[in-house]
Backbone:
């Protein structure tokens, strides 16, 4: 393979508020001889598509601050859940031409595992599925879908059998829409309430079959939930005021699944929850979880394909993507998930092969 232009998105520094393209990251290019890159027993991959997710803001921090996700290293490319194609291999488990998902750098070409190692790093071979683009492996078949599946499959599936009402905050986000379609398919008896921040996103929730969809910026969440509750299961993507509204409307022995806390990403005070007393007053169970963290989550990762693929083939779960074309536009994708501008799963299509069905 000849020398190629290798685009990279470099992390420049830690945001104190909202992430800013060009200030906290920068797209650069360099020449790379793909035949000469040392693999050190690993593989060289060509990036096809990469995910942009709100949680990445948590990674943009001083490494001395301990959190659930590993920090990004200043001066190095950022990385995230991606789908790629093996170009060269010194690992007998992979061959050139294999499609793989894992945590790869925001670079056209990179070595896995490379010199930056953390607990989220992994690499798994995947097939090309007829009718679906490879980018689906970073959305409905990737971090988005597998996160939603992990939480529900492990902690809510049994509870749902005897429950009546589910509330999903941030329901129009990628995880929220996946969860709503999944729950509608396997627990059709549940009444689903979901919130979003714009009219088009409320309309999207209604199109998914959400029973009660509302704009939390224009309507009083506590009153909506009081009218349509009580809430047996609360899937929390946001924390803050919506979680307070849910807490005062939970049923006795209700379940809260803590999946995200986007309300406090850029302004910590907006993520504050004040009604913790409802947890003991109503005998609530609060379960936090992370994608592929711990033996139970690893088991769910492996059970995902068997249960979810038939739902995809039946059209029960749809692939909705907000595409950003080209690695040079990845900073726009990173910003969009922090401002709510994306409509569908935010995906960066790095190579046209990643977006072809």
Residues:
């Amino acid at each position: 393979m000849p020398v190629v232009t290798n685009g990279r998105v470099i992390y420049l520094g830690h945001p104190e508020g909202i992430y800013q393209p060009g200030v906290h990251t920068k797209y650069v290019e360099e020449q790379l001889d793909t035949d000469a890159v040392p693999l050190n027993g690993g593989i060289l991959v060509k990036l096809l598509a990469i995910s942009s997710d709100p949680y990445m803001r948590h990674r943009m921090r001083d490494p001395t601050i301990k959190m659930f996700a590993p920090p990004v290293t200043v001066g190095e490319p950022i990385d995230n859940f991606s789908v790629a194609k093996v170009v060269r291999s010194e690992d007998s488990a992979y061959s050139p031409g294999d499609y793989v998902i894992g945590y790869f750098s925001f670079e056209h070409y990179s070595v896995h595992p490379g010199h930056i190692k953390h607990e989220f790093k992994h690499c798994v071979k995947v097939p090309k599925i007829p009718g679906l683009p490879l980018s689906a492996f970073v959305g409905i078949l990737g971090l988005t879908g597998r996160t939603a599946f992990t939480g529900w499959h492990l902690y809510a599936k049994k509870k749902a059998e005897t429950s009546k009402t589910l509330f999903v905050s941030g329901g129009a986000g990628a995880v929220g829409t996946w969860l709503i379609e999944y729950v509608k398919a396997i627990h059709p008896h549940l009444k689903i309430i979901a919130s979003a921040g714009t009219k088009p996103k409320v309309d999207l929730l209604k199109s998914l079959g959400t029973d009660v969809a509302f704009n939390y910026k224009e309507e009083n969440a506590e009153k909506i939930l009081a009218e349509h509750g009580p809430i047996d299961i609360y899937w929390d993507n946001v924390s803050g005021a919506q979680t307070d509204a849910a807490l005062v409307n939970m049923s006795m022995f209700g379940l809260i699944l803590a999946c995200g806390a986007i309300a406090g990403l850029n302004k910590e005070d907006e993520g504050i929850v004040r009604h913790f007393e409802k947890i003991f007053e109503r005998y609530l169970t609060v379960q936090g979880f992370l994608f592929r963290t711990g033996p139970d989550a690893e088991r769910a990762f492996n059970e995902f394909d068997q249960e979810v693929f038939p739902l995809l083939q039946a059209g029960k779960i749809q692939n909705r993507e907000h595409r950003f074309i080209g690695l040079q536009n990845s900073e726009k994708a990173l910003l969009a998930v922090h401002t709510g501008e994306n409509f569908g799963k935010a995906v960066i299509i790095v190579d046209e092969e990643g977006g072809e069905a």
